[in-house]
Amino acid sequence: MFISLQEPSLYTVKAILILDNDGDRLFAKYYDDTYPSVKEQKAFEKNIFNKTHRTDSEIALLEGLTVVYKSSIDLYFYVIGSSYENEEKCRKASTAGEHGGAVLGCG
Questions:
Q1: Residue 5: inside a domain
Q2: Cα(77)–Cα(36) distance, rounded to whole angstroms?
Q3: Domain count, the chain
Q4: Which Gene3D superfamilies is this protein grouped with (predicted)?
Q5: What is d(CA 77, CA 97) in angstroms, rounded to the nearest whole number?
C-alpha cells in the first residue's frame, strides 16, 4: 500500500478572514493563490458565511479546505487551512485572532 505524505511546510494557513454579521469583509489576508481575484475571494467568503453563521460548531470542511471559525458578538473570525491541515493549529490561530480583535476593540 502506498501512502502519499505532504511535505512539511510553514505555510499552513491559507487565509485569515474577519467578516461582519452580514458576511461582509472587514479584513482578509490570503497567503496563497487559491482564490487569486478579489471577486473569487468575496464569493468564497459569502459561501463560508452562509454555511457557518447559523451553526454552533467551530470546524467545517468546505470546498476542500479546513475552516475553523468563531463568532464574537457581531464578528466572525475564520482561519482557512488545507484539507489535510490539523484543525487544532487552525483553532489556535483563530483564538489568537479573536483575542486580538478584542484588544483592538473589535470583539
A1: no
A2: 21
A3: 1
A4: 3.30.450.60
A5: 7
Q: How many helices (H) and strands (E) does the chain have?
A: 2, 5
Q: Which cell numbers hold the place of 97? A: 485572532
Give the three cell numbers for residue 88. Answer: 487544532
Q: Smallest Cα–Cα separation from 45: which of 86, 90, 76?
A: 76
SS3 label, residue 23: coil
Q: What is the CATH number of the domain that holds 21?
A: 3.30.450.60
Tens digit of pLDDT per residue, the chain (107 long)? 555 555 545 557 889 999 999 999 999 999 988 899 999 999 999 999 999 888 877 888 888 888 889 888 889 999 898 766 555 555 555 555 454 444 334 44
The phi, psi pair for 85, rounded to 5°, reads: -75, 145
* pTM metric for this prediction: 0.71
Q: Is 23 contained in some domain?
A: yes
